[in-house]
């Protein structure tokens, strides 16, 4: 932005003379690529939005069109406050709440566990610290999908099916967070640790008084990544939650379009609107934490 | 306020490197001792052992009457100032200074009083609510000092605290630290690689080389009576001139010239002469060929050669100088003699 400003101002300064900046072919090409890219991202979203505003019959009949219908209010009410299942408890707002609990619990849990693991690895003279780190790191090669059956069995035996603990705890061990915090802690000068030792800060005090506040940008960055990751979890919630009041949004949307029985038409408008509602919180989290996010991942001087 | 004594303190790293050979010395109450030596000589390791940041392999360390070999740094009653200040970046100056007191469960009103005292002493009053990143290097240095003095420790440790400052500020802080130490009367150990800092600040200097103490003495002793050729060439800028000479019949000969007297030594020796002890003298016995003149304002340095050796001499600004041959004499009694192989003073 800033580097184009002088160029844009220059012609204005010599107003009158025909000193317009020449548009180069490469500029046109660059912009075309950018516009195509954003269209690719936006058009499906707009289509979903359009289909959320028209009656469901019309979606079946004509598919997406250019007209905005009048069903938005109606669909919003249905999406947020009407249940679709048997028990009548999986309203949109309930699912939204569940998603928040999962997203936040997942992110906070991963950050806490990752930070503590990294703290142990970096600051304590453990016998096999490096080995332990690499063992943690290699769990990246074993995502949930690979170990889903044993994980399910453990959770089931612990009686944690259909609970928030069951939803969150099996997922919070995080090699990614441990790795990022380890790298970050290693960049904190040794002398800071020594100064704190002389100042009488024990391990717990050092962690809470010095390390956590110093890592706050890193924590914010991790929070965004992990919140979005947790929010978008699909497979695990589908396995663990069978009761409708535990459904998350991402899992619940599918349920709505599935109820095709007899001559009923799936509630497309409602599902589409829920899909849009489902992307709003992650978008806000990213917008809100954005500047911290960049700082956390870029800033090196401490 | 305490005495510090080291008795055969030794440091061996797990990889077998002996960073500090068994070293002993005793520091008087209120004394300002400077550990000086080239980088890698073990001076920082020694300081860190005194601080408790490194384990002591052998020997005993006493601060006051207490043996503290296995005491945690927090309980040794010391305060340390680090080279890069090691201020907590997320805390204000006030919190940085108060942190050590807070951890020791000092009552809040006492913390406030002590912080106010320290900040007044160090002219930090207007910066108390700033973060370290908003301060200049000299101010950060003062905060680091403040953090040390509020604790009222028995011993101050300084680990090259001035090496990140520019030359002018360094000279100023040198005087401030010295004055502060005088005023508080706290025993201090100061590590530096800068021999000027060592000379100007110390009550006593400990010169180290390759993990070994070369000499312990007042700045004057270390400068005028260096215990070895290492000390002679490390202390002083420019360093002492070292020439190989012959001792016979009670005098030291350089070539065919008698330079100075000696007693009891025969054979080859290393002759050490400070640059300022070489005096231009038209009737002088030595002839130097001067090839470079360094103009330093208050004085000049003449670099030249004598026989196969290089030599530097120091003359006042009023002495006329020119390149080419110059006759000089050596100030009587100013020469030092060292063993030509071990480098030890004779």
Automatic annotation (TrEMBL), chain A:
Keyword field contains Membrane: yes
Q: Which PROSITE patterns match?
A: ABC_TM1
- What is the name listed in the Swiss-Prot or TrEMBL entry for this protein? sn-glycerol-3-phosphate transport system permease protein UgpE
InterPro entries on file: MetI-like, MetI-like_sf
Q: Which Gene3D superfamilies did the record assign?
A: MetI-like (1.10.3720.10)
UniProt family annotation: Belongs to the binding-protein-dependent transport system permease family.
- How does this chain assemble? The complex is composed of two ATP-binding proteins (UgpC), two transmembrane proteins (UgpA and UgpE) and a solute-binding protein (UgpB).
Q: What does this protein do?
A: Part of the ABC transporter complex UgpBAEC involved in sn-glycerol-3-phosphate (G3P) import. Probably responsible for the translocation of the substrate across the membrane.
TrEMBL record, chain B:
- As recorded in Swiss-Prot or TrEMBL, the protein's gene is named ugpC
Decide whether keyword Membrane is in the record: yes
| Keyword match Secreted | no
| Record protein name field | sn-glycerol-3-phosphate ABC transporter ATP-binding protein UgpC
Annotated InterPro entries: AAA+_ATPase, ABC_transporter-like_ATP-bd, ABC_transporter-like_CS, ABC_transpr_MalK-like, ABC_transpr_MalK/UgpC-like, Mo/tungstate-bd_C_term_dom, NA-bd_OB-fold, P-loop_NTPase
Query: GO: which molecular function terms?
Result: ABC-type transporter activity; ATP binding; ATP hydrolysis activity
GO BP terms: namely: carbohydrate transport; glycerol-3-phosphate transmembrane transport; glycerophosphodiester transmembrane transport
Q: Which CDD domains match?
A: ABC_MalK_N
The record's GO CC annotations read: ATP-binding cassette (ABC) transporter complex, substrate-binding subunit-containing
Q: Pfam family of this protein, just one?
A: ABC_tran
Residues covered by the ABC transporter domain: 4-235
Where does the source fall among the domains of life? Answer: Bacteria
Alphabetized, the UniProt keywords read: ATP-binding, Cell inner membrane, Cell membrane, Membrane, Nucleotide-binding, Sugar transport, Translocase, Transport
Q: What organism is listed for this UniProt entry?
A: Thalassovita mangrovi
Spell out the family assignment given in the record's similarity comment: Belongs to the ABC transporter superfamily.
Q: What SUPFAM superfamilies does the annotation carry?
A: MOP-like, P-loop containing nucleoside triphosphate hydrolases
């Amino acid at each position: 932005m800033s580097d184009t400003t002088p160029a844009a101002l220059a012609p204005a300064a010599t107003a009158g003379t025909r000193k317009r900046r020449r548009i180069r072919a490469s500029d046109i090409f660059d912009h075309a690529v950018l516009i195509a890219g954003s269209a690719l991202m936006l058009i499906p979203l707009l289509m979903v939005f359009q289909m959320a505003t028209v009656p469901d019959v019309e979606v079946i009949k004509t598919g997406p069109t250019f007209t905005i219908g009048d069903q938005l209010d109606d669909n919003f009410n249905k999406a947020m406050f009407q249940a679709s299942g048997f028990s009548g408890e999986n309203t949109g707002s309930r699912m939204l709440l569940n998603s928040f609990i999962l997203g936040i619990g997942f992110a906070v849990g991963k950050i806490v566990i990752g930070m503590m693991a990294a703290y142990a690895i970096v600051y304590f003279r453990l016998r096999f610290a490096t080995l332990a780190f690499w063992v943690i790191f290699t769990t990246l090669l074993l995502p949930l999908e690979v170990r889903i059956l044993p994980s399910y069995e453990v959770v089931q035996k612990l009686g944690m099916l259909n609970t928030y603990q069951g939803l969150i705890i099996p997922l919070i061990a995080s090699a990614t967070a441990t790795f990022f915090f380890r790298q970050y802690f290693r960049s904190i000068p040794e002398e800071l640790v020594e100064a704190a030792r002389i100042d009488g800060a024990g391990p717990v005090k050092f962690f809470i008084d010095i390390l956590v506040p110093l890592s706050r940008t890193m924590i914010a960055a991790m929070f965004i990544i992990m919140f979005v990751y947790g929010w978008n979890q699909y497979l695990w919630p589908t396995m663990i939650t069978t009761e409708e009041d535990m459904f998350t949004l991402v899992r619940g949307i599918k349920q709505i379009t599935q109820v095709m029985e007899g001559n009923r038409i799936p509630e497309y408008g409602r599902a589409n609107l829920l899909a849009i509602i489902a992307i709003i919180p992650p978008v806000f989290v990213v917008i809100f934490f954005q500047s911290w996010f960049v700082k956390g991942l870029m800033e090196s001087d401490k | 306020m305490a005495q510090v004594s080291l008795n055969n303190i030794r440091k061996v790293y797990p990889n077998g490197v002996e960073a500090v050979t068994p070293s002993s010395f005793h520091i008087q109450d209120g004394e300002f001792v400077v550990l000086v030596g080239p980088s890698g000589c073990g001076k920082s390791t020694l300081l860190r052992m005194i601080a408790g940041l490194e384990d002591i392999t052998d020997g005993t360390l006493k601060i006051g009457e207490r043996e503290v070999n296995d005491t945690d740094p927090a309980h040794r009653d010391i305060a340390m100032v680090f080279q890069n200040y090691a201020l907590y970046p997320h805390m204000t100056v006030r919190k940085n200074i108060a942190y050590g007191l807070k951890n020791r469960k000092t009552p809040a009103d006492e913390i406030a009083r002590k912080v106010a005292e320290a900040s007044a002493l160090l002219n930090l009053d207007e910066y108390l609510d700033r973060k370290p990143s908003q301060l200049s290097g000299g101010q950060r240095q003062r905060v680091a000092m403040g953090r040390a003095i509020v604790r009222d420790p028995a011993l101050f440790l300084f680990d090259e605290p001035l090496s990140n400052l520019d030359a002018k500020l360094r000279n100023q802080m040198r005087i401030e630290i010295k004055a502060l130490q005088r005023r508080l009367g706290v025993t201090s150990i100061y590590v530096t690689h800068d021999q000027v800092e060592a000379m100007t600040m110390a009550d006593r200097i400990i010169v180290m080389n390759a993990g070994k103490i070369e000499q312990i003495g007042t700045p004057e002793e270390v400068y005028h009576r260096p215990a070895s050729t290492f000390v002679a060439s490390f202390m002083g800028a420019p360093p002492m001139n070292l020439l190989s000479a012959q001792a016979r019949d009670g005098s030291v000969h350089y070539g065919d010239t008698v330079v100075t007297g000696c007693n009891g030594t025969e054979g080859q020796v290393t002759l050490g002469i400070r640059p300022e002890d070489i005096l231009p003298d038209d009737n002088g016995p030595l002839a130097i060929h001067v090839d470079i003149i360094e103009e330093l304002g208050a004085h000049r340095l003449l670099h030249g050669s004598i026989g196969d050796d290089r030599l530097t001499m120091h003359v006042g600004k009023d002495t006329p100088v020119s390149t080419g041959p110059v006759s000089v004499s050596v100030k009587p009694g100013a020469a030092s003699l060292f063993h030509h192989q071990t480098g030890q003073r004779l």
